[in-house]
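Task: complex structure prediction.
Instruction: return structure tokens for all chains below.
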Amino acid sequence: MSTQSIARRQFLAGAGAAAFFSRFSLLNALAQSAPAAQPGYKALVCIFLHGGNDGHNTIVPTSQAAFNLYKAARGALAMPTNDSTLLPIINSDGNPYGLHSGLAAIHPLWAQGKLAVLANVGTLVQPVTRSQYLSNARPVPTNLFSHSDQVQQIQSGIPSSSGGTGWGGRTADILQPLNGAATFPTTCSIAGPALFCTGNAIQSAALLPGFNLDASGMQLWPQAAADARKAGLQQVLQLNSGLALVQAANQTRKEAMSLNAMLTGANASITTPFPGTSLGMQLKQVASIISLRASTGMNRQIFFCSLGGFDTHSGQSWQQFDLLREVSQALLAFYQSTIDLGVSDKVTSFTLSDFGRTLQASGSGCDHGWGNHHLIMGDAVKGGSIYGTFPNLALGGPDDSGSRGALIPTTSMDQFAATLATWLGVPPANLPSVLGNIGNFGSSNLGFLS
Amino acid sequence: MKRLRHLFGTTIPRSVLIWAALILVAFTGSPVIAAVAGSIAVYPQNPSVEMASATYQFTSYVPISPNTIEWLVNGIVGGNATVGTISPAGVYKRPEVIPTPNLVTVAARSVAYPTSIGTSTVTLTKNVPHLWSIYPAQIQAGNYQATFSGSNFAPGSVATANGIDIATTYVSPTSLVVNGAAAVGPLIFQVRQPAPGAVTGDKVTVQVTASIVTVAITPEAASVKLGGAQAFAATVKGNSNIAVTWAVNGTVGGTPATGTITPAGLYSAPLAMPASNSVTVRATSAANTAVFAQASVTLSVPPPPAVTVKIAPAAANVGLSQTQTFTATVANNLNTAVTWLVNGIAGGSSAVGTISTAGIYSAPAIPPSGPITIKAVSVASPSVSAQALVTLTSPPPAQAWLAGARFLEQSSFGPTPASMAQIKQLGIDAYLQQQFTFPETPIYSPANNSVGELQQWVLYNYSTAPDQLRQRVAYSLSQIIVTSANKLGYANEVTPWLRILSKHAFGNYRTLLREVSVTPSMGKYLDLANSKRPGLAGGANENYARELMQLFTIGIWRLNQDGSFLLDNNGEAIPAYNQQTVAQIALALTGWTFPTVPGATPNPAGNWESFGAPMETRPASHDPSTKSFLGATLPAGQSVDQDLDSVIDTLFNHPNTAPFIATRLIRSLVTSNPSPAYISRVAGVFDNNGAGIRGDLKAVVSAILTDPEARQDVPSVNGGRLKEPILQTVGLLRALGGAYLSTEQVTYMFDNMAQIPVGPASVFSWFSPLYHVPQSALFGPEFQIYTPAEATLRGNFIYWLLTTPAGSATIDLTPFQIYGNDMPGLVEAVNQTLLYGRMDPAMKQVLINAAAPGYDAPPASPRFSI
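Output:
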């Protein structure tokens, strides 16, 4: 690499403009080193909690001193006691914490070492302190506290609301060679098109839960008519127009028919019971696709699911309970299905959300914050631990961006993503093309995965 | 007498025997004493001896003394087996086989005087055939056959009639059959045994009488209906002339009143009943006119003839909505009226066609699913009817004008039947010029400020706006200069942006850039609003500065005029700008805020969001320093407006902008993979519209659409572009004479297909113009949202649009339904409508086969869902 190229890369990375870099990586796709052959199957499953889950009530420090701070900051939103309605866990440092009672289903996984928490993670351009933030001494993500911007930044991994690709998609861009000739989409959103899944080379494949790519009409027509039309479609797709784009579109539809056949069988083959909730059905669809890994030939996959309703400006206590219960029941079923499929150490699930919420309540809810706590689940997870730095919960304290407890992240989204991408197989040299700002942070591997 | 002779078994007359006995008595009673006093005589003299006679006694008269004699046959004493033997007593025993000749000589010779000898010649014959009787006892003149009864018949027996041999057939020793011809008079029959030993039996005389002629007729009785016919046959016997004369009631040949008869005997009954219903047919022998035979004919009145209905024509091809006159002819009844039915419905129906009382059939506009039968039912006899088959014929599909259709695909949201007709009439150039003059369709402002309602209107507007070219260019511009409803949560936050794109679609790109930069839509979306100089809260926001360059004007890399990368001395691409450029432009763009709501007090630090007017300046928030970027230096102290204009001017005039914008517009309008020359030509027009003006979008759009590469109707291998969901589905509805309704409820489907209207996921819009076709070097931006799942969803959505569009879209399938069961016609109509005649023949056949198993339930029943 020429000096000039290095300079260019430094510029691009330093500018926090990963979008630039991703274009660059596309243009130089051939020049990029493919990851070394890595055997076996691995998948990441992102569960996006739309609206901004209140992480401060998802995991609560329950040592007396910390709980007092917590209670003081949260006021009416604080969980009533430090021992009755929180599910007790012990961090690997020995300190007691409590999980929200909605998480009862996955609570046992903590003790089993299958569940971890990454504390106070969020979008950052580079590390920033309270004083730096307050004095505008460091660049910070644009439009903090804005849903649309922060959803985009979390998913794109670019803290500027710019960029047409997601870090999941860019991870897949790097790992695509591991899938060889397999044609199944490397990234699949089960929750509609998601920026997270879009790469430079990777299409964002959106599947709907339970949608096996069945062609409409096939079940409505008389069998003979349906068969004739299906055969007709297949024959039309076999015709060679000699036109490259027509052939490419036909190829996509051919793959759809092939996927249709695979998915139809796969969904029926999932015997693990899943809750009939939105997230439950999404994760069942993910399990179905994972079960196809032998027939699809896929070695690396990234999935995106989501659940909305976490924007709890009011009525948080019961809403968050219902939502976290849905999350935990779906996660437990999914974890069980990965055991049943023999891939519990090859599938890592994690939550993302728009942002955290303010510690300080506003009425029966709280407002848009910044840093947040997230869950990571799977046999590859070095569970039973809280990773990152658990923040100081004092209003106006060292981690507060202001006075209401919108906490400045102590771990960047880039580091969270880089750890996951590295586990999935992205070589360290390629991390900057996935996460343009990763070089701004001390470590690209937070160590929660083995 | 005959029988008596037969019993004696001899032919010797009794008188001779008696006489011979007297002589024997006389001469044996007294000795002979004279020596040679006379000749020896043998008795009987010269007899005939038949085979039935085993022995025959001869005697001799010997008038010589001594009178001792010896008997000889044919000179042989005692004879032998050949000629017969004779005993010394004169008993002759005939030979077993009659010799030839059949005469032997029996001699008596004196022993003393051997010269004295007497002889008798014996005729040896076969047994005499006796004829006892003849059947028939009487024979008619002419040829006859008769059977003889008698005895001693033998094979070879020959009958004679009047001494002439006649044909004889041996049956048995007692029966012969003979054939002959006889004339009137006595006829004497005899039977002769042939030689050797021929012998003829006794005679039987038969009187031959004259012959009798007879005539027979069949049938001897017949029943014939008036007007009917009956064949008769006559058989003449007893004469060689078998001719007859036919007569009816005594009149040869008959009469019309009683019926006529031909010389061959075919009787034709009269049409009206004669006085008597019985007539006589007579056949009279020509040979003997006294001889005839008769048959009795009973005439009867036939039943009245059945009513019949005939229809003409019996089959007809009728064009849709055309008429065809049918004629019904009723026979055998005075009431010739008929009732007309179509497929069993009196008078027909709108579905199967109607028919008037005069038999004028009016075909329906759309063929029904089954065959059409016209039926005329006799009023007089309702069980009697006639049918005619109607085949509905559809007009051949109009040939699409490919060149015009392709132009409309690039310059509108797809051809409609009306726009196809219009461009064919005007020609491409005149059509294009007309589009430039069309009044701009106003952007709709939903009363409830709902983005959802705006999205509904957008799809409706794309489907129906008359200023299609402006809509299409604005749609393309919306993918270059992007905002999104996913951040602009209310309709009034989006519409200022839409209005600017629409307003300047044929305007100048600099004006467009300037206006869009200060629209509060963009101000909010890319954070220019309330971006402030360093030292104030937040600092200069770089978002807009970055995207203004990267996406709206110059792009990341230095470009040649043909869109290719400008390379440095090392052969590497050259960045068009760097972070310093972004920061400098961000400083230059500080000082803008949302407009002050009418009646409100402007906030000196910056207003809260409002969208009713362009953004306002806040000089206090503007960075006053000198800025330097891309070779431009903005002097310190320029106003907010001045700095903005400098930024816009610099970027607008940057050499990248022409090829950058040309490439994006070409990709969006015409082809994903334009040639460098094409880009260069269009970029040249961007640089100079021919009148020295830069950035004239009308000229650029003209150049893009009229370029030979765009107008090349023969597809090139890498030509064309994949239609995205909005373009494909709006285009489909338009091609089918329909549109999205402004009340459509299918926006969510566009979300599933990754192209929610005015709501792209990011500033990179729904898909990147730099996206490549998977596993290909070709650009294919729209493929980014054409994954297997999305492709299937799109197909399913199109199926839904074609089958159950009610409430969200309109379509007119009539032009396809008119083909009914005519699958080739239907497929050709699809070909002309959707592919403008370019469908591969193999694909046509596939579709014909796929549609063959039958209809879907009409009328919401497309047979094409792929």
